[in-house]
Amino acid sequence: TLDSVSTIAHEMGHSMHSWFSRHTQPAQYADYTLFVAEVASTVNENLLIEHLLAEKNQDPATRLALLNQYLENFKGTVYRQTMFAEFELAFNEIAARGEGITAEALGEIYRELNASYYGPDIVVDDQIAVEWARIPHFYYQYYVYQYATGFSAAIALSNRILKEGASAVADYLGFLSGGSSKTPIELLKG
């Protein structure tokens, strides 16, 4: 299925990033930071979708499914993860003020954010208020925003690879090989 192939492409991106970093950098720089952890995986997903969209004689239903997947990736990674980051900020601000944090309070914040982000045309039912409890990323301080930044970087990198070819691939392999030898932004600029 598209989902299983996309998952393989995603995980292969993580494997490539780890392999290149560990085979290029000394041990102290071999691991990469969380800020760039989703870049290579998302580059692979984007390249896969672009490859599939470029197929000739594609039936309209397949093309629509691919475009929908691309849009879902954007919504789930940039839009939703940004909402998650705002939720995370809100409950950390409550903790910083020394106020108690209850499941009910978190549920209300989460429900309000869903209503705000998705607008009045989407049904925001009572069950959405407890969705936050099943998302493990909230248990790593300020991690979720990195999905949105990683997706944005991955779109830029995959577009450059498709437009420029070999020179962009060489630069990209340099990024994958960088580990933590530079700051994440410096690695991405390369």
Task: Please describe the topology of this protein.
Elements: H1 2-24, H2 39-53, H3 60-96, H4 103-118, H5 145-164, H6 166-177, H7 184-189
Distance separating the two termini: 34 Å
Radius of gyration: 19 Å
Structural class comes to mainly alpha
Output the number of helix runs. Answer: 7
H/E element string? HHHHHHH
User: Level of helix content?
Assistant: 55-70%
Low-confidence stretches: none
Mean of residue pLDDT?
93
The percentage of residues in β strands lies in: under 5%
Question: What features would you describe in this structure?
Answer:
This protein is mainly alpha-helical and 190 residues long. The protein is 68% helix and 0% strand. The chain is built from seven helices and no strands. The protein has helices at residues 2-24, 39-53, 60-96, 103-118, 145-164, 166-177, 184-189. Helix 2 (39-53) crosses helix 5 (145-164) and helix 5 runs antiparallel to helix 6. It starts with a helix and ends with a helix.
What distinguishing features does this structure have?
mainly alpha, 68% helix, flat
Short note summarizing the structure:
This protein has 190 residues and is mostly helical. 68% of the residues lie in helices and 0% in strands.
